[in-house]
Amino acid sequence: MNCEVCGNPIHGEPQTVLIEGASMRVCGNCVKLGTKITETVPRPSVVTSRSLAPLIPRVDIVEDELVLRDDFGTAIKEAREELGLTQDEFAMKLNERVSLIKHLETGKIKPNDMLAAKLERFLKIDLYVSPEYD
Ligand SMILES: [Zn+2]
């Protein structure tokens, strides 16, 4: 092929240079007229094994593993009695049905997350414990 600047045959590898914004293949003599373009090889994405994310505090993990304690019914009943409330009074204060309270205290019904939170707040007890709890 010929040099795109001077028209002379190019011996060997043609050089690609930038001349006035245009990329041209030129001979060795005309290389100095432009800015040499270095072949742009797509860089492989650098994968760093180093993670910048802070370590998750261990306490958060433990919290996620909390389970409803087996004796939640007894715990509710005892805490209620300590407050001197009957099942009816307790149900009224929680705005729940008495039948639900009875079932909770006998362990027939497990409280859902919202009810458990309400019971925990009201009775000041922990219904959710870590699995290691005995
Ligand atoms: Zn040339």
Give a structural overview.
It is a single chain. The protein is of the alpha+beta class. The protein has two domains: 1-38, no CATH class; 61-129, 434 Repressor (Amino-terminal Domain), CATH 1.10.260. The chain is 34% helix and 12% strand. It contains five helices and five strands. The strands form two sheets. Strands 2-1-3 form a three-stranded antiparallel β-sheet, with no helix packed on it. Helix 3 packs across helix 4. The longest helix is centred in the middle third of the chain and has 11 residues, at 72-82. The termini are far apart. The mean pLDDT is 84. It binds zinc ion (ZN). Zinc ion binds at residues 3, 5-6, 8, 26-27, 29-30. Residues 3, 5-6, 8, 26-27, 29-30 line the site of zinc ion (ZN).
Q: What's the SSE blueprint?
A:
Blueprint (H helix, E strand, L loop, with lengths): L14 E5 L2 E5 L8 E2 L21 H7 L2 E2 L3 H11 L4 H8 L3 H8 L7 H11 L4 E2 L5
Antiparallel strand pairs: 1-2, 1-3, 4-5
The structure holds zinc ion.
- Give me the strand/helix succession: EEEHEHHHHE
Helix run count: 5
Q: State the CATH superfamily name of the largest domain.
A: lambda repressor-like DNA-binding domains
| Helix/sheet category | alpha+beta
CATH fold annotation of the largest domain: 434 Repressor (Amino-terminal Domain)
Each distinct ligand: zinc ion
Count of folded domains: 2
Q: What is the CATH first-level class name of the largest domain?
A: Mainly Alpha
Strand percentage, roughly?
5-15%
